[in-house]
Amino acid sequence: MMGKNQDFESLFNRLKDIVDTMEKDTLSLHENMKNYEEGIKISSELYKILKEAEGKIKIIKDGKERDFKHE
Predict the structure, then answer these.
(1) Are 42 and 1 spatial neighbours (Cβ–Cβ below 8 Å)?
(2) What is the DSSP string of 43-61?
(3) Count of other CB atoms within 10 angstroms of residue 6
(4) Tens digit of pLDDT for each residue in 21-47?
(5) Looking at the chain, which terminus has fewer C-beta neighbours within 10 angstroms, N or C?
(6) Is the distance from CB of 15 to CB of 43 less than 8 angstroms?
């Protein structure tokens, strides 16, 4: 499962693995549901990471010298 310190690349690779496994259509419904749930959690975490990066880029782009604080 996901750890607090996993980076974008490792989360993205895990999500790819889940999708690849589910596309093979060899899992039971229960296993597919577990993978789906994990995939949704990973997708949410990836979205948070991207939004934080977007905020940092905006700060840099605007030339403002301040810390990024996610709301």
Answers:
(1) no
(2) HHHHHHHHHHHHHHHHHHH
(3) 16
(4) 999 989 999 999 999 999 999 999 999
(5) C
(6) yes
The rounded distance, in Å, linking the Cα atoms of 2 and 45 is: 9
The CA distance from 28 to 14, in Å, is 19
- Is the distance from CB of 34 to CB of 27 less than 8 angstroms? no
d(CA 61, CA 49): 18
With a CB cutoff of 8 Å and minimum separation 6, the contacts of 61 are none
The 10s digit of each residue's pLDDT in 42-67 is 999 999 999 988 888 877 777 765 55
Comparing CA positions, the residue from 17, 4, 15 lying closest to residue 40 is 15
Rounded to the nearest 10 degrees, what angle do helices 29-61 and 8-23 cross at?
A: 150
